[in-house]
Design a protein that fits this description.
single chain, 4-stranded antiparallel β-sheet, binds flavin-adenine dinucleotide
Length: 516
Amino acid sequence: MSQHKTDILIIGLGLAGITAAITAAKSGKKITILTKTKNKSSGSTPWAQGGVVYKGLKDSSLQLKKDILKAGAGHCWEDAVEHLCKYGPGLVEEILINTLKIPFNSNELGLERVAEGAHSTPRVLYHADKTGKSIHDIALKYLENIKNVEILTNHMAIDLLTFSHHSTETTDIYKKPACFGAMVLNNETGAVVSMLASKTILATGGIGQLFLHTTNPKEATGDGIAMAWRAGARCFNLHYIQFHPTALYHPSGRFLISEAMRGEGAKLINNQGEEFMNQYHKDGALAPRDVVSRSIHKEMLKEETDCVFLDIADKDSAWTKQRFPTIYDYCLSKGIDITKESIPVVPAAHYSCGGVGVNLVGKTSLKRLYAIGEIACTGVHGANRLASTSLLECLVWGYFAGKDSVEEKDDADYFPPMHDWSLGTQEVDKARIAQEWLTIKNTMWNLAGLIRSQDKLRSATNILRLLQSDVEQFYQRSELDNNILSLRNGAQAALAIISSALEDRESLGTHYVEGE
Ligand SMILES: Cc1cc2nc3c(=O)[nH]c(=O)nc-3n(C[C@H](O)[C@H](O)[C@H](O)COP(=O)(O)OP(=O)(O)OC[C@H]3O[C@@H](n4cnc5c(N)ncnc54)[C@H](O)[C@@H]3O)c2cc1C
């Protein structure tokens, strides 16, 4: 197997990975950054419609901290929240405003700020309804011009290299688990390369694709969780998964329909045309996000339907097109004119609050391994996430991990001899992969999704343990490609989430348990 040596290996080309790369590159060291997709525009970052937290005109770190702690249902790590509030606004200024010059919306008084749900003051910067895409496009261009950064597309990390799993030495120099790079599939050539790195940074994004319905892109298959789990890095709060109440229900996939639409008076109706939210909560369609998501789920089960409907057709059509241009265009491209007809919607897995446990600079429990962005559990989000804090978290932890990775020495230039690695030769059976994904997605949705119980979670464990064991054998025999590797990771990450959910019998934040 060929080897590729770099100083800092970053796995993931979203905002977290890019921020770490830009920061670490200032040291002059060699930075290698991977994405498993052919396209550089990948991950959830380009899909972020809303915005990024900055600071309001009458705001303070303390006020932001209070809002985050409240949203997190008392389950946040206070030091991490303070770190975000202390450094976040300054890094937005330094990186997004001054360096990248993101064209945030502004007026004659300066940058415009909006107040999103549960924020006590307007403090969120945005660029139309495409904030994430603007940030990602511009940040990528900036990164492409840095000489010591190598961007490898269509390169998928398979597993982290650790002394305990891959070295032929019987005692490692650290006397505790450490990571020295990753095994990577070059999907263009089919070759597997061991990428040796002094420091490795996981920035692989979310887990939404483990569920039947999700707002996340195709690549969000929980790869980072699975790799970290197999390598023995500690994970936390994996069961705190935020569901968005309304995603477009369409055969081509889901698309987020902003909560602002309900704020503007759109009605939630069932297949009989009846408004149903008042039966579930006194605030009707404006009840908290979790309540609306669960109520829609219950209504779908009661009516035995695949979706409910969001209706804004009684508003003036010119106003709707101007207020929701992206949603209007997207729905129209799928044959739905939202000014004339109601939109089929379902709740959808949206954001993972937990992940690989890290400290304030993104270090994990494995030496020489960092985790940043949605894959990490920094402790900021606790049991639930305050809107628009995730891009900010990518920026803060991306910056500090990038800086620490080039500064901290930690015997990071030592690479042990490795075991041989043999590859399977069987062709990947696509029908089999499709079948296993359906099982994972349905199991997670019905038994480990919006409404959980010990009984359902135990049943999900039984189903997925069997599946994982089959998939692992299938993986050992197969010629490798992104599909089989993503499936292997999906099965592992799903089991990790369920085991975390089983251990927590208390309903809190996004984790809702019934019975016992
Ligand atoms: C529809 C939507 C709307 C959102 N709106 C907002 C918002 O308004 N404000 C906000 O703050 N947050 C929002 N979020 C959340 C936010 O966008 C994400 O949490 C954030 O962008 C995650 O960034 P990241 O860098 O951690 O990962 P991502 O941007 O998801 O990038 C992950 C990268 O890892 C790569 N990758 C994955 N596995 C592998 C592997 N095995 N090998 C190699 N590469 C791999 C992917 O290809 C990708 O490049 C939204 C999310 C969605 C889905």
